[in-house]
């Protein structure tokens, strides 16, 4: 049922717009649907209400959920005066200096500062690091014995991002390899939950998170001191050096705590997501011998087009981050025939957009051929979100997946069989293969 709202009481020529239809269930029930069985709840609500409706859930409050491609496009092309990043967002977890917490000109400046590290020649430079880390990790893989590939993928992507951020390896990175995984595991669960204050915080899971974070900051401070003392800082291409060299218009640089927040952001946002997508890659290839055979043939011939198409399809059919959020900053935001009031949350349902049969025929099929020789339509394929907050590491992630897949397929044969699909497991932010992407491999001779 739809409420008719007199959104234009002044009687100007703008047509009256409607409020999106609300889900009429107690807030707590909606919250459980959103947090615990989101995929099923969303499919049910879309069937009942269509591709735009309003839910009311803890933490985000009244939130308009959109998966209609034309409306999604309007959200992605809105300017920062109309929509800002969702509140709360991941700066809750990574800290106020994180790009997730910035909007307007501060956000734009930070993006400009970081962009060179993730595009063009920088990507080419990272390739060797990615290949080395993959070879190092898979040197001890068991042959002919099933194992979870998610953890090895996590180690590869963590090492890659640490080396991209800090440059050379060293004892400090060894310490970070110990700190980051538990910080990620716990942080994902707590990211959107309001933290308790004072001594309650100290004795709760947030206390553990604070302790890990203190360790991270201490190591980054040490690495920052080393970078400052490095006579070659000006030539260095790593992200710490980039941030250390940066100055604002008034000549001041980024504060140390903002640098810590931003580096934690890039590590946090940049490694588990990519590892999860790679986990899904092996989960799908085990069950699709035809796709696997085509990929191996292409790797042996030195090509990459089909692998690129496979990566796009993987990110569609097993969407890692299923939602991108915004908040209405303007007095109201007009979205098609709907009017969304100030301060309301807008959630773009990436996973449901990717399941739309009008855009992707037989959306449940893993079919890389649909992207062979063609790019996905903008605003219909949204694995990295869209608009001003679109993922800054999208090209980096695709390049990393490409090199990891290529290196593994060059060195290993993946056994295929008719095992049941792995279910999806929601870890708080990313949707991972429930059994960790179990595979059996043999070394190629
Ligand atoms: C397959 C891997 C990845 C996926 C699926 C993914 C997905 C996403 C999504 C959906 C968003 C939100 C976009 C929006 O709100 O419109 C995002 C934001 C972001 N991602 Fe990624 N990401 C991946 C890899 C990476 C990597 C490798 C990095 C960095 C090294 C990274 C850094 C970021 C940052 C910093 C943001 C916040 C951008 C902003 O608010 O301006 N991501 N990502």
Task: Describe the structure in your own words.
Mean pLDDT is 93; it is low at 1-13. The termini are far apart. The protein is 49% helix and 11% strand. The chain is globular, with a radius of gyration of 23 Å. The chain is an alpha+beta fold. The strands form five sheets. A five-stranded mixed beta sheet has the order 1-2-8-5-3.
Mean pLDDT: 93
Distance between the termini: 63 Å
Please give the number of β-strands: 13
What does the largest sheet look like? 5 strands, mixed
Topology:
Elements: H1 27-35, H2 38-49, E1 52-57, E2 61-66, H3 69-77, E3 83-85, H4 91-94, H5 104-114, H6 120-138, E4 147-148, H7 150-166, H8 171-190, H9 198-202, H10 205-228, H11 239-245, H12 256-286, H13 289-301, H14 305-317, E5 323-328, E6 332-335, E7 338-341, E8 345-349, H15 350-354, H16 394-411, E9 412-414, E10 424-426, E11 431-433, E12 438-439, E13 441-443
Bound molecules: protoporphyrin IX containing FE.
List keywords for this structure.
445 residues, alpha+beta, five-stranded mixed sheet, two-stranded antiparallel ribbon, 49% helix, globular, disordered N terminus, binds protoporphyrin IX containing FE
Structure summary:
With 445 residues, the chain is of the alpha+beta class. Helices cover 49% and strands 11% of the residues.
């Amino acid at each position: 049922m739809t409420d008719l709202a007199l959104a234009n009481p002044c009687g100007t020529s703008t047509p009256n717009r409607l409020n999106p239809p609300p889900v009429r269930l107690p807030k707590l029930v909606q919250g459980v649907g959103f947090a615990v069985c989101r995929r099923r709840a969303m499919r049910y609500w879309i069937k009942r209400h269509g591709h735009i409706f309003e839910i009311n859930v803890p933490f985000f409050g009244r939130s308009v959920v959109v998966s209609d491609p034309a409306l999604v496009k309007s959200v992605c092309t809105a300017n920062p005066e109309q929509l800002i990043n969702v509140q709360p967002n991941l700066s809750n977890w990574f800290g106020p200096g994180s790009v997730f917490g910035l909007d307007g000109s501060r956000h734009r400046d930070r993006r400009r500062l970081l962009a060179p590290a993730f595009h063009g020649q920088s990507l080419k430079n990272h390739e060797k690091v990615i290949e080395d880390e993959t070879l190092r990790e898979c040197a001890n893989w068991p042959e002919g014995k099933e194992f979870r590939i998610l953890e090895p993928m996590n180690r590869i992507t963590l090492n890659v991002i640490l080396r991209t951020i800090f440059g050379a390896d060293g004892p400090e990175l060894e310490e970070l390899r110990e700190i980051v995984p538990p910080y990620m595991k716990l942080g994902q669960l707590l990211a959107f939950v309001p933290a308790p204050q004072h001594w309650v915080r100290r004795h709760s899971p947030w206390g553990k998170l604070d302790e890990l974070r203190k360790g991270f900051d201490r190591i980054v401070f040490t690495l920052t001191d080393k970078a400052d003392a490095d006579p070659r800082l000006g030539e260095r291409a790593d992200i710490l050096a980039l941030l250390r060299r940066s100055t604002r218009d008034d000549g001041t640089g980024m504060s140390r705590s903002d640098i810590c927040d931003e580096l934690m952001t890039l590590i946090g946002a940049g490694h588990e997501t990519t590892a999860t997508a790679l986990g899904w890659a092996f989960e799908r290839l085990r069950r699709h011998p035809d796709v696997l055979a085509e990929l191996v043939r292409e790797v042996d011939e030195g090509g990459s087009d089909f692998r690129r198409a496979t990566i796009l399809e993987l990110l569609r059919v097993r969407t890692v981050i299923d939602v991108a959020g915004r908040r209405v900053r303007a007095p109201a935001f007009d979205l098609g025939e709907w009017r969304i009031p100030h301060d309301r949350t807008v959630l773009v349902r990436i996973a449901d957009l990717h399941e739309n049969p009008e855009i992707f025929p037989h959306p449940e099929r893993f079919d890389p051929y649909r992207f062979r020789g063609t790019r996905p339509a903008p605003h219909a394929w949204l694995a990295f979100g869209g608009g001003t907050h679109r993922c800054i590491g999208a090209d980096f992630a695709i390049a990393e997946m490409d090199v990891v897949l290529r290196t593994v397929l060059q060195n290993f044969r993946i056994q295929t069989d008719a095992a049941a699909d792995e279910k999806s497991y929601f870890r708080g932010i990313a949707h991972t293969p429930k059994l960790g992407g179990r595979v059996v491999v043999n070394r190629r001779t």
